[in-house]
Amino acid sequence: MTLSTGRPPAPRSASAPAARATNPDGDWLLSQLREALDLTSRAAVRRLAPAFWQPRPGSPFHDELANTEVDTHGVPWGRQEPTMAIEMAQLSMIAVEDYLTGIRKLLEPPFPPPTPKLGAAALCRSALESAGAAFWLMDPQLTVRQRVARTYLVLWQESGTAAKNAAKVGTPTDAAQAQADLSALVARIDDLGLSHTNKPLTVDGERLPTKTDKVTTLLAGKIRGGHEIVYSLYSAIAHAEMTGILSRRLAGTWTITPRQLTQNVELAVVAFGQLQRRLCLGGMGSAPDEVANQLWEHNVGRRLLAVRRRLS
Predict the structure, then answer these.
(1) Cis peptide upstream of residue 82 (ω within 30 degrees of 0)
(2) What are the C-alpha distances in Å from 164 to residues 16, 160, 175, 207, 308?
(3) Domain residue spans in the chain?
(4) What is the mean pLDDT of the segment spanning 70-81?
(5) Alpha-carbon dihedral sign for residues 301, 302, 304, 309
(6) Under a CB-based contact definition with an 8 Å cutoff, are residues 156 and 242 in contact?
(7) What phi and psi, each to the nearest 5 degrees, are found at residue 207?
(8) Rounded average pLDDT over 152-176
(9) Where does 109-226 have alpha helices with state H?
(10) Are 120 and 258 in contact (CB under 8 A)?
């Protein structure tokens, strides 16, 4: 039996028996995808526990907290500077879990109708963005100076945006405060002894990659073929570009196919898995490759593999 693709049912005569309100194959598909998301969301919630964010002794992240860097006044950096990157990664994990929950809510039966249309793709894109940003920031191969430089790059960009917005729509007091905050941030970069340029925006030689580059790096090695264009395809949907929206059109009916629906879930799950793996490799959790990670990958992978086989 093939999966239903969301086409409207054919008309039936008054004497014909009532059709099933749900499609058995479609319900099975949604149940498998919901279970994969439930397992992933629960894993993400476990990763939000404070204990997970205490780096293991001897790990790269732990060594960074004991760094010997000093600022231009001879004051040690201490734990404060590298800790900001960890806090940013925590916020990204919170966001990823929230987007996973949102996708899960769009997969409630019956199937069809109705079927999720474009919302799941937009949430998937957001999960990829959040995970990609933290994946870039928490690269275990970075030195403490590089990680702190990347942290301040993010803060500088966002403070600059806040200052521009305040100048356009805020009160004079708001604009002055936002500009003062931006100036204080740049002064702190100077105090830390980090070089910087305004155009292009750099801190100690580090540059902000594009969102596309971050997501491409996140998916490299996990998505065989086409990972370089995944983000642009999902961005087209989020930004209401006709090419992106039309890619979700089928036989004149505004819907998405089971394969597209599955891809949304797979990519959101990969976003979490890649971020989790990078954090563990850098020093979070009890080991670089925890048993809990292996169990999660096995249980989620088994469900998604069953779906892919049914769709083939």
Answers:
(1) no
(2) 65, 6, 8, 21, 47
(3) 24-209+257-311
(4) 96
(5) positive
(6) no
(7) -120, 155
(8) 95
(9) 119-137, 144-169, 172-191, 211-219
(10) no
